[in-house]
Amino acid sequence: MANTLHPAKVLLLAVHFAQHADIDSLSILTSTHTTIIHDEILLRILLTHLPETERPAAYVGFLQKLVDHSFEPCQLTGLDTSPVNSIDDNEAVKRATKLHLLPLVCRNPPEIAQGDALSRFLFLRIHQMNEETGMLAQLLDLLLPFGRHSPGIHKWAMSTVIPYVRKGLQYRAGTSLAYSLIEFEKLPDHQAVDFLLCPVDSRAQPRENVDHDLRSIIGPWVYDTDRWENSSEDGESSRVFCPGWHKVCEWFLSQATLSWSTAVQAIERWGGPEDVEFGHGIALDLPAAHRYYLRQTYATTVLACVYGVQEATLESLRRLHSILMNLRVYLGLNGGTMSLEETMKVLPGLSSTDIAVFHNDRVATYMRNDLLGQNNPLTRPSEGATNLLLALTRSAYILTLFGSPSSPRRVGDLTFLHDERDQRSEISKLLRTIAIQASKENDDFLLKAREFLLWLRDWGHGTAGKPTAGAATAGALGMLSKEYVEAEFLKLLLSRERYSLARNLYDGGGPVRLPVEVVQDSVYESALSAFDNATNPNRSRGGLKRCDEIIHALPKTVGLSLPGTKRIIALLKATHALSDYRLVLKQGEPFSPVVLRVHSDPIFIIEKVLEQNPRAYTRLQEFLEMGMNMVRAGLPSYRKLDSPTLLTSDSELNLAAYIAERRITAMCIEAALKEDDFETAYSYVASRLSMQSPENSDTSPWPVVDEWSWKAALQAGQYIRTERSQQPTHLGTASGNLEIRHLEQRIECLATALRVAPTSQLQEILKSFRRCEEQLDSAIKEEAANELALGEEAKVDNLPGAFDQVNVEQQYPVRNMTASVAAQQTEEAPMSLFDLSRATARAAQRNFTAIPSLQSITRGADANNNEHEGGSLSRIRKRDQLREAATGTLVSGVGWLIGANVGQNKEETS
């Protein structure tokens, strides 16, 4: 009966078998009614009525028989025709016309749209299954057996369906994809790449198995030639471009910046665009031009990623170095398997061609902009570009190793911007870290560090026996001269007390040839640095001890006779002298040596010492030596002497020494007076301030007015004894009356002030001088009156050998009497031996010398006495005459009694 079925019933029965997924019955029906159920009708019935949930394995064999036309003849006696038995032929025709089978029509891709019915069926069935069930694994079960059926199905399966399914299978069960297959096919290339490379779990950092995505998803997807563009410019040979692959390259670069480990891991594990996993025994291929494009752009991307990585650790640099070495092998250049540490033992240099890009003015711009551009010399695949980036990576390794974490990009900025200040700052950081690490290492470590520093300057280009043109700028520290690097390293050795190594390298006939001036300056700077960092002013401890050792570290080059050496030694002596005293310049801060060196007025520190240390003023000679050392050290002796250079000439040094001596002496005098030690102050005035001032000397480089000596002398002359005043330890030849002795000493101090003071101050000093004279005259008369009264009471006249007493006016003539008249009256007045001794002792202490300025003032004041005195204004005064008489005529008499100087020349009194 089955053989006599109406054609309409045959169609209805085929639909029934398809709806119930009865593939065996459908196969029997098809094999016996091939003229009614032809291939396209059958595929339309399956497309329309076969359940999407039916596993492809159930009907793939049927489809293969359909394609191969390999249905075997079979008996239809076992075929169940009951579904159509109750339907008459007319009804069957009506129902057949209303089947509305889906057409086998698709617009894209063209290879499938124009292909056979099975290709179109597979294309439509795959989309149908994806939209209705979402069972991704079954898509490949249906499609892969027909992968070689037609070129269109082959390419579509390999470059679209397989990447989509593999991406979808990464998601957890029950998670729907962002796009269906048909939506995915319509996505622009950049959105498709974002979808294929987006992480399934964004929390996982770094992403695992990114290389798998590149190999099994991106790789097949890129091999679709429909995603490529061909362009030609001005008749040139056509150029290929793949927007989707360009997006992949941009993804690499963004990952290098945001998540360096993800990008580096992908590059390490992926072999490049040739490393594609199609699977299932089938594959795609690209034209040679396409493969060359992928190869070159991938190499560019790897170089760009290395520039983009901002991580600055030893681990990241090791991995970047390994990537670059593998890239050289990938490009067919001289590569190797040496690790970064092994390479740094050799320190390979750059050739002249490697640094050609260095002379490009826009090289720094290239590193920041358009790294993926074809015209960027830094990322264009070449031996020079890879060698340059290797040099940057190795430089970053050295910087990071020595405490300045750097990425290749940071080293590129340091190198390409040619900023000398930045490079000086960078080498300073390196040296500080090397100095810290050197304390735990031997000399081999320091020698290797020096080799690294020199390599950073020129990347081995200048030390490889090759042309030196441009070598000064071909390095991470290329703006620094070799002498500068060597000098800084010498300072490092000296600061870490590696004096033996410093001598072996830099002293005299060492292997490093540096100008003598450079070595000397480095030693002096290191010594002063140790001085500035010292906290104890004692020369035998801490920083000052190191300073002293540094000065003596290189005896062949830095001798003790050099001016710079002498200055530092003097500075050490001056500072060490302060260690014996208590000194606090700021409350709560002890004195540190650097204060002395940077102070605008170092002599002022001595004044602070005098204030904070009782009776320190008695050590005047020690302070004078301290001041001389300050001068010898080149420190300013007076704030107003703002010389831009060190003291070089003898006249400059003498003037500075004179100023220091006068200032220090004046400070000690003032300190003594504050502590009521007038005797010491007077001795300093008499012995130290009577020297001639050089202020009018033609050899003085600066106009100097001694404003310290006359003030100190005036202050001493104005001092009035109190109960707190210290008593003299011995009187010598002075008056036994302490008041008279004090007044005489004051007069002598005031006379010294008159002698050294500027003209504008003489009037004020002269007033004090006259008041003191009046006080002295009054005291002398009072003493004479007291002695007369005592003589009357003791009846001295009755003593054997005594002379008659004279009145006070006769014994002590008036003070305005001339020296000759006073001498004549003194000779005529009879005196006892003891009176004569006392008078002589008093006269011997009146140690006035000629005071021209005082004579000129006195000449104006005593104009009315010219006739009485005649030409005696040029003569010395009474107390000077008494001194001369006492020391001249009493030498053979009672001089032994009063302690007179028996060797004094009488000619000096004339």
From TrEMBL:
Residues 11-787 form the Sec39 domain. Signal peptide: none annotated. It is found in: Endoplasmic reticulum. Its main location: endoplasmic reticulum. GO terms for biological process: protein transport; retrograde vesicle-mediated transport, Golgi to endoplasmic reticulum. Keywords: Endoplasmic reticulum, Protein transport, Transport. Coiled coil: none annotated. Pfam families: Sec39. InterPro entries: Sec39_domain (IPR013244). One of its GO terms (cellular component) is endoplasmic reticulum. This is Secretory pathway Sec39. It comes from Metarhizium robertsii (strain ARSEF 23 / ATCC MYA-3075).
